[in-house]
Structure formats: structure tokens, C-alpha cells
Amino acid sequence: MLTDTVRGALAQRKAIDEMIGDALSKDWSLERLESVLRAILRAGAFELTTRADIPPKVTISEFVDVAHAFYTGSEPGLVNAVLDRIARAARAEDLKR
Length: 97
Known about the structure:
By secondary structure, this protein is mainly alpha-helical. It has 6 helices and no strands.
């Protein structure tokens, strides 16, 4: 449920922000990202790390679609790349399937 995802992301914001920061390229910081983009990444990272019942590829695809609803530029690609890096770090076994 989206409400649970948003609440969970807020509750675990510090740890999630660290994951996102680690997944960003060295030229970017989390603070440099626009607030909606940060929110999308936080929710996606939370779902990737807490919802083992949802395949990582599904989560990534869904949050890339959310990014497309807000952005027409390169932002959806950034969401895809960052969430993919987080998934590879947090759920490597699930990605092999």
C-alpha cells in the first residue's frame, strides 16, 4: 500500500538517504536532487529493501513509471539507475531469478 511505503520511507529516511547517496554518481548528492525526485527514490528504495514479496524489477519499473508522470527529461533514467544499484546491493539473489 502506498501509504505504508511513504510512512516507512519517512521512518527510515536516514538509512534510505545513505543508500541513495551511495547509489548516486560521485558528481551528485541527494540534496542536489529536486524534492519530488528525492521522494520517488526514497519510496522506491524503501520498497526494494522491505518488500521481499515484490520482485526488484517490478518495483524499479513501477517507480520509473511514477517518475515519467512527473518528468519528461532524464530523471526517469536516473530513477532506474539508482534503484537498480540499490537492488543489486540489497537484493542481489532476487535479481538472479
